[in-house]
Amino acid sequence: MAVSRVSFGITMITTLIFSIILPAVHAQSMAPAPAPSNDGTSIDLGIAYVLMLVALVLTYLIHPLDASSYSLF
């Protein structure tokens, strides 16, 4: 009976030590955060294109009204 109690105690201590140490052995460091896929330049470029298109449309809408007061021929 004493042998089985000592054997059981050694088994429990060994199991406890391994249950504490083994997860630390297999632990991996956290991966770094991924780089941002959009830094805002594409949004700024899209806004710039829209503003240029608005300016172009306004220019061609206003220009014929301006040119109609002049006689070209």
UniProtKB/TrEMBL annotation:
Signal peptide as annotated in the record: 1-27
Domain of life, per lineage: Eukaryota
InterPro entries, alphabetized: AGP16/20/22/41
One Pfam family per UniProt: AGP
Source organism (scientific name): Aquilegia coerulea (Rocky mountain columbine)
Keyword Cell membrane: no
Keyword vocabulary terms for this entry: Membrane, Signal, Transmembrane, Transmembrane helix
Membrane-spanning ranges: 43-62
Name the record gives this protein: Arabinogalactan peptide 20
